[in-house]
Amino acid sequence: MAHLTVDIGGSPGADCRGFCRYCYFKRLKKEEEPEPFGCKYCLPFTKGCDYCTNGVREKYEGFKPLRSVADDILANLQMMGGELEKITISGGGDPSCYPEFRDLMEILGSMEVPIHIGYTSGKGFDDPEIADLMVKNGLTEISFTVFSSDPRLRADYMGDPTPEASLEVFKRLCTKIDVYAAAVIIPGVNDGEVLEDMCRWLEDCKVKGLILMRFANRTDQGLILGNAPIIEGQRVQTVREFAEMIVSLNSRYSFKINGTPLGDPDIGSPFAIMDEPDLLEKLPRVQKDATIITGSIAARPIQKILDACGNKSWVYGTKKEIACLITIDDLKYIDLSRLSETVIIPGRCFVHEKEATEVLSADGVQRTVIRGPDMLTADGETSMGMDKNGVLQMEMDGFSDLIRLINMYGKEIKTEE
């Protein structure tokens, strides 16, 4: 079965009717040639590629013309093997704001394949009738940022010129297809009773699920593009406060409520495997020593899981909360005396291995830097469409790969005689 991704192009802020007030792409410096971060896609001896230079910044031209999108679709279909199973519409811009959205839906609808829209703010939906057109042409799933069920808050914080129409589109879609709502939570704005009102409204709409995202306003919380703070002086929930809020909400409403970065209360992820001793026993045993670098949120659970597998290694949590958003600057603050001779960095972090080796060997100890697995678990956004078995399998695969890397590249553990 094949999956077709339709990229419509576009950039945040320019192709979404303007930045939301909380958008992580706000206040980016307009650099002619931005400095690349380095990443897993870079060549071994060259720091920089399109992904870690432009992709992470969504630094692209405007929406692609419909003809260009259609040509891409045809070219991709010709290269595919197997029967087309699903179509996903994505892009740097917001699909609801795509000027030729209706025509695009009709073209895709002619393929008679289920269509998913991976993200939309709905700010471009000015006529509620668009909901019927999308369903008629095969839309079966959509992730729709609501922010609040209060039109005034949508207008104020999202810049939605027709918030009532957008919310009506959302409501109509909920009666016919799988709709996942999303909201960035800003303390004092759309939390508390405002959030409860939205959850009650979503329950009445028969939404499939709600993904809540913790607002980030500092570099250590994940703002790596030099644009912190997004909202000057805005309070941010602690990780614990946010996680407790997710658990409480999920227990009181009929639809599934997840949070990112934490967590999925129904499945117990991230790191649901910690509560599965039988599965921990099936993981490979740790036989060598290495240091695993990760984000501050994941450090303790990763250490516990590796300890259950006979681990003698040290998991080093950086100040950066999210592992895949670690950059070379985070590595510069690491206490090198606590590192072993083999260091494993997160698979998706924005670091070039050659530069990481130089930084982590600055104390004169020549260290080997290895890029680890892409994912060790599923965050709340990923697990929303998964069941527990799928998440546990992802964790089994991720930790098995990690332990194999430790055993392949790590240092022999000296045993006491």
Summarize the entry for a quick read.
By secondary structure, the protein is α/β, with parallel strands linked by helices. It has two domains: 2-260, Alpha-Beta Barrel (TIM Barrel), CATH 3.20.20.70; 272-412, Rossmann fold.
How does this model look, in words?
The protein contains 14 helices and 13 strands. With 417 residues, the protein is an alpha/beta fold. Strand 3, helix 4 (130-136) and strand 4 form a beta-alpha-beta unit. The mean pLDDT is 95. It is globular. The longest helix is centred in the C-terminal third of the chain and has 22 residues, at 388-409. It has helices at residues 50-53, 66-79, 101-109, 130-136, 151-158, 163-174, 192-205, 239-252, 277-282, 299-307, 328-331, 353-360, 380-383, 388-409, and strands at 2-7, 84-90, 115-120, 139-145, 178-185, 209-214, 256-260, 288-289, 291-294, 314-317, 342-345, 368-371, 411-412. The strands form three sheets. It has a seven-stranded parallel sheet. The protein is 32% helix and 16% strand. The chain starts with a strand and ends in a 5-residue tail after the last strand. The protein has two domains: 2-260, TIM Barrel; 272-412, Rossmann fold.
Any key phrases for this structure?
14 helices, Rossmann fold, 2 domains, seven-stranded parallel β-sheet, alpha/beta, TIM Barrel, four-stranded parallel β-sheet
Q: In the CATH hierarchy, what is the architecture of the largest domain at level 2? A: Alpha-Beta Barrel
Calculate the mean pLDDT score and round it: 95
CATH topology heading of the largest domain? TIM Barrel
CATH fourth-tier homologous superfamily of the largest domain:
Aldolase class I
Largest sheet: 7 strands, parallel
Structural class: alpha/beta
Runs in which pLDDT lies below 50 for 5 or more consecutive residues are none
Q: Beta fraction of the residues?
A: 15-25%
Q: Domains counted in the coordinates: how many?
A: 2
Strand order of the largest sheet: 1-2-3-4-5-6-7
Radius of gyration, taken over Cα atoms and rounded to an integer in Å: 23 Å
N to C succession of SSEs: EHHEHEHEHHEHEHEHEEHEHEHEHHE
- Percentage of residues in helical conformation: 25-40%
* Overall number of strands: 13
What's the CATH first level of the largest domain? Alpha Beta
Number of helical regions: 14
Give the N-terminus to C-terminus distance in angstroms: 56 Å
Which descriptor suits the 3D outline?
globular
